[in-house]
Amino acid sequence: MFTGLVSDVGEVIAAQDRCDLRRIRIACSYRADTIAIGASIACSGPCLTAVAVGEADNRTTFDVDAAAETLARTTAGDWRAGTRLNLERSLKIGDELGGHLVTGHIDGVATIVARRSSDGMAHFEIEAPHEISHFIAAKGSVTLDGTSLTVNEVFGDRFTVLIIPHTLGVTTWGERRDGDRLNIEVDLMARYAARLAERA
Q1: Residue 84 maps to which CATH number?
Q2: How many domains does the chain have?
Q3: In the predicted model, is pLDDT for residue 94 greater than 70?
Q4: Does residue 186 fall inside a structural domain?
Q5: E strand or H helix at 147, and its extent?
Q6: What mean pLDDT comes out for the span 110-128?
Q7: In the predicted structure, residue 54 carries a pLDDT above the cut 70
Q8: Do residue 81 and residue 130 come from a single domain?
């Protein structure tokens, strides 16, 4: 379980296809002795399992395996050496819940339709996959590339978010442009509420 509050920006330094798996090596600023084999780390949204830990060029590295389902449902298949990823360690009992409850189970891939910048902030218009757009509500929460965000407006399959200067500076959002693809996870509570409404 996560909060959608990014704690580091990692960099893919290697990606190798192995039959139905892709082994991805990510460099980060976490201390190597704090990453246990089997630990869950959200990597730009998807919850992935650390299967190896090491060091390269004075940076900690960890390896994850992206399986066929993850490659099909997320942007992980596009990650190459140099790709920067928003990272978050899994929650521990007693940690502050500063964002919202995030599972790391990606619902699909959204697309940035337009970016407008002003006063150091960035306003993004985003198109969600049609089959999940009804879970997105104005003033509700959504996770995009592992970042917990508040939805401003919703119109059809599109919605808007406003990214403040701090978030632009400490995540990959400062790099995002029109046409970029984003991993999207809808709010867990919205999903359960919709399921209950279907049964009513």
Answers
A1: 2.40.30.20
A2: 2
A3: no
A4: yes
A5: strand 147-150
A6: 97
A7: yes
A8: no
Report whether pLDDT(189) > 80: no
Structure tokens at 161: 């978010």
> Percent of the chain beyond pLDDT 70?
93
Amino acid code (one letter) for 27: A
Same domain for 84 and 163:
no
How would you classify the pairing of strands 8-18 and 121-127?
Answer: unpaired
Is residue 78 in a domain? yes
Distances (CA, A) of 39 to 46, 62, 95, 199: 13, 10, 16, 36
**Two structure tokens written together for 136:** 């997105």
**Taking CA 176 as the corner, what is the angle to CA 171 and CA 182, rounded to the nearest 5 degrees?**
85
Q: What is the pTM of this model?
A: 0.93
Residue position matching structure tokens 């990510």: 26
Range 4-26 average pLDDT: 94
Q: Which residue is it, tokens 């400490």?
A: 170
CB 159 within 8 A of CB 173: no
Strand partners, 117: 122
Q: Is position 174 within any domain?
A: yes
Q: Is residue 35 part of a domain?
A: yes
Cβ contact 21:102 at 8 Å = no
Specify the pLDDT at position 77: 94
Tokens describing residue 143: 């996770």
Q: How many residues comprise the chain?
A: 200
Mean pLDDT of the chain: 93
